[in-house]
Design brief:
five-stranded antiparallel beta sheet; 15 strands; two-stranded antiparallel ribbon
């Protein structure tokens, strides 16, 4: 029997032995398979390594092989391989003998090789199918999320407009570019008030069902003069791109002075990008909270050093802004910081003072 392996023509025997050499190199280190086969397989160790790699859940403990008989090792490996589809073409006693039949062993190993390769190929296809499904699901989720965000943004703008008449025309709108129709030639452009005449125009469908029409050259962002691609935002009757619409609404980062496109962080009557919301003194992130230090956001450490509080918590060493718990002649944040000195269990009114420190009953 001849076969192709690694770009070379070789006998079936060499094909199988080369496959084993590459599949479980750690099991055949220092072994000359071509010279020592088939007797090298009679202790079941190489077969056990092959089966264990093909099926990591196989009930084979590679560390204990040397403590078991050759027949037991081979029998366990044959049964485990049969469990994932490899036909049991040989008995354990026929492999684990002093003079095993080479043809019988190579026939079984060739069948095992085919089964493992088909299994790995099937698992590879299953993985690709699952990855494709995951990508499709992720894409669908992203599209749904984008759609939901757009709907929510429109709804939020409607609510904002309803609450504030000065923002009644703040809206996101879609538009369509087309040729001017004969009956539209004398219609005035919404921005320049001149007749549309001829050429391309922009028709805008508003949220309330009404329509506005513009010259194509007039329909640009009021601030940067760039044309729109899909949507535009209108504030006080003027069209804006997303960035300058946010600026027109006052969403400008107090730290970097750039427009805030996503949801801003509002603190001390100012807006910040998430990444810009840092301590005004040491640039530490304030994602976990901040202190008002003379009108600027500050971390706890800077607030402590630059504006000491009347009381400082004995536990966390930070200023106490809210309720103060007075116990053991010390001040504590309440709740949260008054805990057992040893086990850190939260304490209430039930505690024991030992050398000026609070303990629970179990630790006192």
């Amino acid at each position: 029997i001849n076969a192709e392996y690694g770009g070379q023509h070789m006998s079936g025997r060499d094909t199988i032995l080369n496959w084993i050499q590459n599949y479980v190199p750690e099991a055949v280190e220092g072994v000359d398979l071509k010279r020592e086969a088939p007797k090298v397989f009679n202790d079941g160790k190489i077969l056990s390594h092959i089966v264990k790699k093909a099926d990591p859940d196989a009930p084979i403990n590679l560390k204990l092989l040397k403590h078991k008989s050759a027949v037991d090792n081979v029998e366990v490996a044959l049964n485990a391989a049969e469990r994932f589809g490899a036909p049991k073409l040989i008995d354990a006693t026929d492999m684990a003998c002093e003079h095993p039949d080479e043809q019988s062993i190579l026939t079984y190993l060739g069948s095992l090789k085919t089964t493992i390769e088909q299994r790995e190929k099937a698992r590879g296809l299953e993985k690709k199918v699952q990855e494709s499904k995951n990508k499709t699901r992720d894409l669908k989720d992203r599209l749904n999320a984008q759609s939901a965000r757009k709907k929510q943004e429109l709804e939020n703008l409607r609510k904002k407009a309803a609450e504030d008449e000065s923002l009644a025309d703040v809206q996101v709108a879609a538009f369509e570019i087309k040729e001017v129709a004969p009956e539209q030639k004398e219609v005035p452009c919404e921005l320049c008030a001149k007749p549309l005449k001829a050429g391309k125009i922009v028709e805008v469908e508003n949220l309330d069902g009404s329509q506005n029409i513009y010259h194509l050259q007039c329909f640009v962002c009021f601030t940067c003069k760039k044309p729109f691609t899909e949507h535009f935002w209108r504030v006080q009757g003027k069209p804006y791109c997303k960035e300058h619409h946010r600026i027109a609404q006052g969403f400008v980062c107090a730290r970097c002075s750039k427009a805030i496109i996503e949801t801003p962080i509002e603190a001390l009557s100012k807006f910040y990008h998430k990444d810009c919301f840092l301590c005004s003194h040491c640039n530490t992130s304030l994602s976990g909270g901040f202190f008002d230090l003379t009108g600027t956001p500050a971390c706890g450490n800077c607030y402590k050093t630059k504006k000491p509080s009347k009381y400082t918590c004995f536990n966390c060493k930070l200023p106490i802004q809210g309720p103060v718990l007075d116990a053991c002649d010390k001040k504590w944040h309440d709740p949260g910081c008054f805990v057992c000195t040893k086990c850190k269990k939260n304490l209430g009114d039930d505690f024991v003072s030992v050398k000026g420190l609070p303990y629970c009953d179990n630790c006192a």
